[in-house]
Amino acid sequence: MKYFLGIDGGGTKTHALVADETGQAVGFARGGTGTWEAVGYDGLTEVLRDVSTRALDMAGLHMEQVTGTGLGLAGYDWPSQKQDHLDALANAGLRQPLQLVNDVALGISAGAEEGWGISIGSGTGCNCRGRSKDGRREGRVVGGASHWSGEAAGGFEILLRAMRAVTFEWAKRGPSTALTPAFIEHTGAKDLDDLVEGAYVGRFDFDPSLIMLIFEVARAGDPQAVEVMRWAGQELGGMAVGVINQLDLQKENFDVILIGSIFDGHPAIQESAGETVHQAAPGARLVRLNVPPVVGGVVLGMEAAGVDFRAPRPRLIESTEAILKQEKELA
Questions:
Q1: CA distance linking residue 127 with residue 140, whole number of Å
Q2: Residue of 260, 257, 163, 267 whose CA lies nearest to 215
Q3: pLDDT tens, N- to C-terminus, the chain (331 residues)
Q4: Of 71, 92, 113, 182, whose CB neighbour count within 10 A is largest?
């Protein structure tokens, strides 16, 4: 029996999954942040060693029994970072055939049935990656660098856009919005003047958790809040259009996998993203990722070892969900 290891390393957590060649998940572990930007390369090594060892222990296996490994790591953004990452992987004992991608690219392997297409991620920040039909080319944006790179539709930027609507009301540049009383109540400001002045001089801290309040106001139907949602969708869809153009996918039928909590905030985000994408690629299918991204790591591990992932993929998804449910019940 052949076994494969998948790892999803994000800004707040790391998941490791072990599955056999039939797609049966046999081991799982979770750990802390999996990006060198937070813990350095030595810290990345420790996290990868920890989660892979515990997942293999659960499966009753040793690293030498792993046929291939796939990893998606936040913070792996540029070719110049590849060797440092490979060194960290080697120090963690991950030396077998492997594939290493940015964590957002895991969405393609996890969510696209044929293993190619585009993934758009939006949570605290945003990112977009793509893979050509032949699997040989990657498309990408800068990597969620916010306003200067035109990738400004993560939670923090949505918050800034919502505050823009509030300041436009204050300056008589735009209509009134229900965002204004919501922000006043949340911050404890006396009134709109106090809110705007307090934001300017730094008396009020607009932390990312405010995004939930913005979603609430949008779901209640406030036109300005809904417009913020549509703006976010256009920005995210625009990133995908760039990747579509890079990979010449305009006439193809392919999956665009949507990853991250932002897409659950309001339907206008996905609707607007879809409208933007379909202007460039009418055959694109927007798919909300509903399986654990670490599944994509196992798929990449199978690919690295030359194993066709398509037949075992349904069982891999089903058994992974089962093992995660079991872990949750035991916690």
A1: 8
A2: 267
A3: 999 999 999 888 999 999 999 999 999 999 999 999 999 999 999 999 999 999 999 999 999 999 999 999 999 999 999 999 999 999 999 988 999 999 999 999 999 988 999 999 998 889 999 999 999 999 999 987 888 888 889 999 999 999 999 999 999 999 999 999 999 999 999 999 999 999 999 999 888 779 999 999 999 999 999 999 999 999 999 999 999 999 999 999 999 999 999 999 999 999 999 999 999 999 999 999 999 999 999 999 999 999 999 999 999 999 999 999 888 777 6
A4: 71
Give the integer Cα–Cα distance in Å for 245 and 49.
Answer: 38
> Three-class SS string for the chain?
CCEEEEEEECCCCEEEEEEECCCCEEEEEEECCCCHHHHHHHHHHHHHHHHHHHHHHHHCCCHHHEEEEEEEECCCCCHHHHHHHHHHHHHCCCCCCEEEEEHHHHHHHHHCCCCCEEEEEECCCEEEEEECCCCCCEEECCCCCEHHHCECCCHHHHHHHHHHHHHHHHCCCCCCCCHHHHHHHHHCCCCHHHHHHHHHHCCCCCCHHHHHHHHHHHHCCCHHHHHHHHHHHHHHHHHHHHHHHHHCCCCCCEEEEEECHHHHCCHHHHHHHHHHHHHHCCCEEEEECCCCCHHHHHHHHHHHCCCCCCCCHHHHHHHHHHHHHHHHHHC
Token reading at 1? 């029996």
User: Is residue 308 a contact partner of residue 299, using CB atoms and an 8 Å limit?
Assistant: no
> Domains in the chain, ordered, with CATH?
3-114+290-330 (3.30.420.40)
The residues, any chain, with a CB within 8 Å of residue 268's CB and separated by 6 or more, are: 218, 226, 229, 230, 233
